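Board notes, transcribed. Complex of a protein with zinc ion.
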Amino acid sequence: MKTQQRDLTTTGIILHKAPFQETSEILEILTENYGKITAIAKGVKRKNSKLLGLTDIMNELNIELYNKPGSNWYILKSAELISAHAFNTRLEHNVLIQSVIEIFRQIELSDDDWEKLYILFNKFIDYIKTVKFNPIAIFWRFLLNLYKQLGIELNLKHCAICKGSTEEVIGFSLTQHGLVCRKCSRSVRSDSLIQVSPHTAEIFKIFNSIGNYLSSIDLDNSTIREINNIFLLHLSDHFQKNFHLRSIELYSQLNPDNVIEV
Ligand SMILES: [Zn+2]
């Protein structure tokens, strides 16, 4: 049941905005207390609007909302900027935050789950902006936490079947939700087995403490693609829909691997 209150205050992060009529916008906001909501910012594009400039994507705001009884729509009454996360953020960090936003926009969860993810997302944003090398590894760490929170944990510590060490990992099994060793891979249906290259297998060995290796790991584009693919297929499998993240595609294009020297 939705809350009976009509006027609500909370904090929120703008996930998306779309123009509405001449001067208004429709916003998708991840709120701390009321989950992911749709809100109308009336007259936000007028020069004298109190909301002018506050509704940019990734802005974290203190907000006051009005909820029409019986409706899933909210009206954004007022907002106060806590942080403009898109501002002054390096492009690769920005792209990774956008990737999380793309996932959040495609999933539906209970308000309680969103409350936990709101905190997780905030920590992720603050931290990723400080990461100099291989920030994508922090994105993966966020996804591990996200999956844990959603009860769809990935098994990357052992072979998902024999529970043996990850020394001889050669693939990822979609049905077993984890890495599998050479021996066990024979019992996995080939259409649910994703091959893992030796280099990617090496990265998985240190995955649980990847934050300690940011400046020393070598993440080339094909490794990044392999790992992204596994994370997204797992998500697609759980939610029964395809997750193709445009932002994450862009990340590979930013990788120095792709810089063409002239
Ligand atoms: Zn095994």
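The chain has seven helices and eight strands. The chain has a mean pLDDT of 91.
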